[in-house]
Specification:
Length: 340
């Protein structure tokens, strides 16, 4: 009797184990790899292999990962930085990404790009996935999922991605198998390098908005971000990257200026500093003025690094042998990529 019971238990255990293994393999195959297609979806996870030791952490949308290159910040001022940006990263998503980051390190400064303050609602599941899919499981991931889901989404599809991607069998490509058990970095400390040039052309006319007021949820999470930085002893710095479209209205700017003044924060609107930075929208953008290419990011990063050094006391680590050794090798590879 006991032997039969044991045999049945072992058989059931084997069935369950086989099911779990098959589910794991199916999930690994079907879930997008974000290595050669939609590489923006892999950027959040690349941080884990490089976490720790950064003076500055950027959070925000594509205006940070395209426009700021930590490699140039180190080259010019010896500042160590990492960009934890993602496509269409919303304010509450930036908060949870930052909260997760504090589990790995405490930077001296946190830089938040305020462009996402204009979005009070989730934009789409596709954008949510680019930020969330590759995050490690944690309380922060649970929080970011619950705050970001659209009405059509289901929490369990994040827990078991196979529920979302089961129909990808017909869409599988070589990438899905080549990167089944391996990954590679697509960024340089979170900066997604782009060497293409597409000059600024004609922009759509500015449209009168029904309201210029930021949504309550945006203010709620900006305040949470500020209080989190205060608790951790990191300085929160607000910026607006010099992207000419979508338009950053004066009414938006006033609200951020007032918030910064009320809480003693620095706010840098780089749209006002284009001439000082030396940005040329005919040569320094890869998509007609929405984002900086490598040339524009190099200029902007050097300019901001000088501000961080002079106005915020960020240290120069180029005389630190251990740090210098790491970054000299990174810069060698970075320059090779930049000069291809």
């Amino acid at each position: 009797m006991k032997k039969t019971l044991l045999k049945n238990v072992l058989s059931c255990g084997a069935v369950v184990l086989t099911f779990v293994l098959l589910l794991t393999v199916f999930t690994m195959v079907l879930q997008p790899k974000y290595m050669t297609d939609l590489v923006e979806g892999s950027m959040i996870s690349q941080y884990y292999g490089e976490a720790g030791g950064h003076d500055v952490i950027f959070v925000g949308d594509c205006e940070v990962y395209a426009n700021f290159t930590p490699m140039e910040m180190y080259r010019q001022q010896g500042i160590t930085a990492y960009v934890r940006g993602s496509s269409q990263q919303l304010v509450w998503q930036s908060y949870y990404v930052l909260k997760e980051t504090f589990e790995y390190e405490t930077p001296e400064a946190v830089v938040f790009n305020v462009n996402s303050m204009r979005y009070p609602e989730p934009v789409s599941e596709a954008y949510n996935r680019l930020t969330i899919d590759k995050m490690r499981w944690s309380d922060e991931k649970i929080g970011i999922i619950r705050s970001s889901m659209t009405e059509e989404e289901d929490f369990m599809s994040y827990v078991f991605p196979v529920l979302r991607y089961h129909s990808r069998f017909d869409e599988l490509t070589r990438e899905d198998f080549e990167y089944l058990f391996k990954t590679r970095n697509n960024t340089w400390n979170g900066h997604l390098m782009n060497r293409e040039v597409k000059p600024l052309g004609a922009l759509p006319a500015k449209r009168v908005q029904a309201s210029y007021e930021f949504g309550d949820i945006c203010w709620e999470y900006l305040e949470k971000m500020r209080l989190l930085c205060e608790e951790k002893g990191a300085e929160l710095i607000l910026i607006k990257a010099p992207s000419v479209y979508p338009y950053w209205y004066d009414e938006y700017d006033v609200q951020i200026e007032d918030y910064a003044a009320e809480h003693g924060l620095h706010f840098y609107n780089f749209l006002d500093d284009v001439e000082q930075i030396g940005i040329d929208y005919q040569t320094d953008t890869y998509d007609g003025g929405l984002h900086m290419n490598l040339s524009g990011a190099t200029k902007l990063s050097g300019y901001f690094a000088e501000i961080l050094a002079e106005n915020h006391g960020l240290r120069d680590h180029r005389d630190d042998a251990a740090i210098a050794a790491v970054y000299e090798e990174k810069l060698r590879l970075y320059d090779e990529e930049a000069n291809k």
